[in-house]
Amino acid sequence: MVLFVLAGCVGSPSPKATTTGSPPTETTTIPVTATSTTSSTPTPTTISQAKILDYQNLEAPTRRILRAAIENGSVTVTRSNLSGRVSPDKDGWYVRHQGELYKMSWEYQGFRGEYQLRNATKVNASAIDDASAAIEYRNLSAHAQRMFDTARMGGETETYGANFPNQFRNNRYVKYHGEYYELRTVVGDYVTYQLSLKKV
Q1: What is the pLDDT of residues 84-117, one digit of tens each?
Q2: Which residues make beta-bridge pairs with 134?
């Protein structure tokens, strides 16, 4: 699906009293500053371990999205590029990365056109009626070459928005080692969100 590949928050649950004899709930205590007219002492809040995701245990595409959000403060993503473990349904959840805890928040951004290079099929040169619609493989960017190689081998590339190579938007064919390949490119509207990560 087309990575390639370019905040509203909810409060944490309040601490609950533990009844004698009940099994304890595993939680993490995070100090946060609370405004008070009687004391300036930070008031701790508790976060359920069930709402904390470990960065290292997530899939590689998801880690790339989270790393971009950590480095830039936020990132725009399509719903189709998200795994079930990191999605807008988990607004207010946390990610632990390199010993630091980050709170996730999501903001709906609407729909956006996304491109995907589905495959590249070998065709006869006689089938090409417009030579200007073909581009030499060596003239592709390194990124476009990687995408073409994947498509030529029968694999689908990831979904991309602004980062989808213009060379594939403007050309229907790629000439590779003297042979022509027809590109099958699809475009669709996908729901997008802004994911923000804030250190706590």
Answers
A1: 789 898 888 999 999 999 999 999 998 877 788 8
A2: 173
List the structure tokens of 6: 């370019």
Average pLDDT over residues 62-80: 90
Q: Output the 3-class SS for the chain.
A: CCCCCCCECCCCCCCCCCCCCCCCCCEEEEEECCCCCCCCCCEEEEEEHHHEEEHHHCCHHHHHHHHHHHHHCEEEEEHHHCCCCCCHHHCCCEEEECCEEEEEEEEEEEEEEEEEEEEEEEECHHHCCCHHHEEEHHHCCHHHHHHHHHHHCCCCCCCECCCCCHHHHHCCEEEECCEEEEEEEEEEEEEEEEEEEEEC
Q: What is the mean pLDDT of residues 56-67?
A: 90
pLDDT in tens, 144-167: 999 999 999 887 776 666 678 889
Residues 6+ apart with CB under 8 A from 158: 1, 2, 3, 4, 5, 61, 81, 116
Distance CA 5, CA 65 (A): 11
Tokens of 118: 């589905």
- At position 4, the amino acid (one-letter code) is F
Nearest to 115 by CA among 171, 172, 165, 175: 165
Predicted pLDDT of residue 131:
84
